[in-house]
Design goal:
The protein has helices at about 25-40, 55-60, 75-85, 100-105, 125-135, and strands at about 45-50, 65-70, 95, 115-120, 140-150, 160, 165-170, 175-180. By secondary structure, the chain is of the alpha/beta class. An eight-stranded mixed β-sheet has the order 3-2-1-4-5-8-7-6. It is globular. It starts with about 25 loop residues before the first helix and ends with a strand.
Length: about 180
């Protein structure tokens, strides 16, 4: 796992040993950021189910202003903190050790994000619940984008509350759905 582009291009990121986390592949990550390139610079990013910080750290490398990482696994948080320190971006980041749904409630009304990355565990049915929680909260900016990573076997709804699906992309077992606030 590495940073693909930007100021930390080519830098390796540490990963959690074992099968509890599933980092976004470089191929999928590159595709996501090619689609988002016009939105990254200066953006405020929320990385839900952050794991080791792969997506949020890529956004920082490409010029976003700030990232809030939400993760509850202590092993993943330990690796995330090492990755933040190794890249020298601790000041630009915040780590919340919380359940994602609780974190959304805590952030609502306090902070808004231009981009929200969400990579929940596959095949647990969390995607619709997560999209509803985001739609019902006040954490997404008016022109903000939600990037939902999920199994390519799972179809995501075209609309969830105030969120409208812009497009889907499939990459083997992984699919990415992009949502925007109506």
């Amino acid at each position: 796992m590495r940073v693909i582009a930007g100021r930390w291009k080519g830098r390796r990121l540490l990963a959690v040993k074992g099968m509890h986390t599933r980092p976004t592949s470089d191929r999928v990550k590159e595709a996501i950021f090619n689609i988002l390139q016009q939105y990254i610079t200066g953006s405020n990013v929320l990385d839900l189910f952050a794991g080791t910080g792969n997506l949020g750290l890529e956004a920082l490398s490409r010029g976003c202003s700030r990232v809030v990482f939400v993760e509850k696994d202590p092993r993943a948080i330990d690796v995330l903190n090492k990755n933040r320190a190794n890249l020298g971006c601790v000041e630009q980041t915040t780590v919340m050790r919380d359940d994602v749904f609780y974190a959304i409630k805590r952030l609502s009304g306090r902070e808004r994000f231009d981009i929200i990355f969400a990579d929940p565990p596959y095949s647990r049915g969390l995607e619709a619940l997560l999209l509803n929680a985001i739609a019902d909260s006040d954490i997404l900016c008016q022109d903000g984008i939600v990037v939902l990573e999920h199994s390519s076997r799972d179809h995501q709804p075209d609309r969830v509350g105030s969120l409208i699906k812009l497009q889907d992309r499939r990459y083997g077992d992984t699919a990415i759905s992009f949502y925007k606030k109506e």
